[in-house]
Design a protein that fits this description.
Elements (H helix, E strand, L loop, with lengths): L14 H8 L4 H7 L7 E5 L5 H14 L4 E5 L17 H6 L2 H7 L11 E8 L5 H8 L6 E9 L6 E8 L2 E9 L13 H9 L10 E8 L3 H11 L3 H6 L1 H4 L11 H5 L2
Parallel strand pairs: 1-2
Antiparallel strand pairs: 3-7, 4-5, 4-7, 5-6
Helix pairs in contact: 6-8
């Protein structure tokens, strides 16, 4: 079964609606949509721990963003020159390889494993059932400190879902359209963008997929993968096709894709 017909679900809509999403789907565009999640400095207040614990904390922070500068404030004191107008943030540098994107690319940084800090990348070519995935993301993820990436929700088959979680706080929303849902007449024409699409293309589902990076301490990767796999559509649900998937009960809030595309 193929789902190239997903573009038909948007047939009849005005071209500008799709055009506003086009650049989001190339790598630089996706990173621009995620810029609100970058940080270039981490300030640790009144750290009173053993040397080993302190090194472990520093390693965790570096694992979240290797480029970030870590500042130690004692009794809440830190010079203003180290906090204000530092000009540390460089979007071009940040967009090249934030930590989560490095993991999606397979660029492994093993030094954190010394402290029980590990990561793994979850990939799949089936969509998540909205109810099952909602139940997962509203439950406890033992050992997970940070997770980030994108997901494919069956009830919104043409849309890319963004995902970002740090501790007990998570954020999700729409990032635009999968290229499989965009008529080829509106695809980019430059070779680099077309290669990017082709690299992610699957003959059955186009570029639609799951891509999540999980970083944590003493995580049970096998158990977490099993929980994520349980959220995927089974064979019978897959056979129903995208139009039927849109009738699944969906507890996720509405994604205001038109508004997000204008940010």
């Amino acid at each position: 079964m193929t789902f190239h017909g997903m573009s038909a679900l948007h047939r009849g809509k005005k071209a500008p609606f799709v055009q506003r999403f086009q650049q989001q789907r190339v790598q630089a565009g996706v990173l621009r949509r995620l810029r609100k999640f970058y940080f270039d400095r981490s300030i640790c207040m009144d750290i009173d721990t053993r040397d080993g614990d302190r090194r472990r904390l520093m390693t965790i922070l570096k694992g979240l963003n290797p480029r970030a500068r870590i500042e130690i404030a004692e009794f809440g004191k830190l010079g203003l020159d180290r906090m204000l107008d530092t000009r540390l943030f460089d979007f071009d540098e940040a967009s090249k390889a934030p930590g989560w994107l490095k993991e999606l690319r397979g660029e492994h940084t093993p030094e954190t494993e010394e402290y029980g800090i590990t990561h793994f990348v979850y990939r799949a070519r089936r969509p998540f059932h909205p109810e099952r995935f909602w139940q997962l993301i509203t439950s406890n993820w033992p050992g997970v400190v940070r997770s980030k990436g994108f997901f494919w929700l069956a009830s919104r088959p043409t849309y890319v879902g963004s995902w970002s979680q740090a501790g007990g706080v998570c954020r999700h929303g729409g990032m635009g359209l999968w290229w499989a849902a965009v008529p080829k007449a509106w695809w980019p024409e430059d070779a680099e963008s077309l290669k990017s699409i082709d690299d992610d293309w699957d003959p059955q589902v186009g570029d639609a997929r799951q891509g999540l990076v999980l970083i944590g301490i003493d995580m049970d990767e096998g158990a977490l993968r099993a929980r994520l796999n349980a959220c995927l559509l089974n064979d019978a649900e897959m056979a129903q096709g995208p139009r039927a998937w849109q009738r699944f009960t969906d507890p996720f809030p509405a994604w205001d894709n038109d508004a997000e595309s204008e940010e």
